[in-house]
Amino acid sequence: MDAQPLDALDLKLMQALQLDGRAPFSRIGEVLGVSDQTVARRLRRLRATAGLRVIGMLDESRLGRTGWIVRLRCTPDAAEQLAGALARRPDTTYIDLVSGGTEVLCAMKPRSRQERDELLFGRLHRTPRVTSVSAHCLLHLFYGGPFGLLHKVRALTADEEAALWPPRPEAADSAVQLDAEDEALVAVLRRDGRAGLNELQAATGQSESVVKRRVERLRASGILYFDVQYDSAALGLGTGAMLWLTVAPSALADVGEALAAHREVGFAAATTGQANLVASVVTRDGGELYRYLSERIGALKGVQTVETTLTLRRVKELTYEPTR
Questions:
Q1: pLDDT at 39
Q2: Distance between CA atoms of 3 and 232, rounded to whole angstroms?
Q3: Is 123 strand, coil or helix?
Q4: What is the C-alpha to C-alpha distance for residues 277 and 66, in angstroms, rounded to an integer?
């Protein structure tokens, strides 16, 4: 269905779920001054009209894993098929068709070095009609992960935000491991971040109280967080792009932190490769993107070059939906 304009309450509900994806409807309603029935009804409508979904995600860095962005240049007839195949992999998240349909952009988080090498050095290079593969390791995250564009909407008041924030994750001393029961829980939450305890219990074969404690432990450690998937057109944002910035090393931290504060930026990270900083931006249209590039990016000291790749179509966001 086509995205419909959102009102103030819709935006508050979306931001509330970005803060705490598993917050009970009753608590959200109490903070926002509406009934839990109103919250449930509005969220059902937002799911139908704006593609709203809460997805359980892992902070891979706390598991000792490294994120990558892979640029795959291919013949025009191969791009859609390649993007679909990558989208079905559980270790990929954002997959876009860019550059006139001759390039696939893929964010991936291999579970092991063996999986990384098998994909990057083996399978992709052997894929027919792929003309080049460029892999970029994410070195430092400036913005993204548990934080997204909805945090910058500022629909909630400061008091409402404070009331809805879950307890902050603990500092991680070292990488941790997930056991089989944790993996089973996460698999369900990747499909539906608001899955009930009964569904989680059925997936693990454990009691409801044990399941509840496991979810709370994973959240408290920061390994598990909840993100919100939605159609950005619902926010009036119709133009997405990836920016590949070459920045003087002495200015890299300052530029990255500046990008993190820009309302247009949903993701920014230092990366390996010819460009050492990458950012995902969304604007209302091409004119606003031009002004952002010329006025905001152009004003940042230390930025030497910027490559802009326009997003033609998003194939996968947090989870794969073939009808997107």
A1: 97
A2: 9
A3: helix
A4: 16
The one-character DSSP state at 195 is -
Q: Which of 323, 321, 324, 314 is nearest to 94 (CA)?
A: 314
Strands 68-74 and 239-247 come out as unpaired
Among 13-17, 89-93, 303-307, which stretch is predicted with the lowest mean pLDDT?
89-93
Q: What is the pTM of this model?
A: 0.89
**In this predicted structure, what is the pLDDT of residue 168?**
79
CB 60 within 8 A of CB 66: yes
Would you state the structure tokens that stand for residue 159, as one six-digit string? 């008091």
Q: Which two tokens stand for residue 124?
A: 């992709």
Task: Kindly list the distances between the CA atom of residue 195 and the CA atoms of 181, 186, 271, in Å, as whole numbers in the listed order.
Answer: 16, 11, 35
Q: Judge whether 85 and 100 are in contact, CB under 8 Å.
A: no
Nearest to 117 by CA among 159, 45, 58, 68: 68
Closest C-alpha to 116, from 98, 142, 89:
89
**Cα–Cα distance, 17 to 163 (Å, whole number):** 13
Q: At what angle do helices 180-191 and 208-221 cross, to 10 degrees?
A: 80
The total number of residues written for the chain in this structure: 324
Q: Average pLDDT, stretch 49-71?
A: 91
Beta strand ranges found along the chain (DSSP E): 53-58, 68-74, 92-98, 103-108, 130-143, 224-229, 239-247, 265-271, 277-283, 303-316
Nearest CA to 141 among 225, 70, 87, 66?
66
- Tell me, what DSSP letter sits at residue 251? G
| Maximum Cα–Cα distance across the chain | 57
Find where tokens 């109280």 sit.
209
Amino acid identity, position 100: G
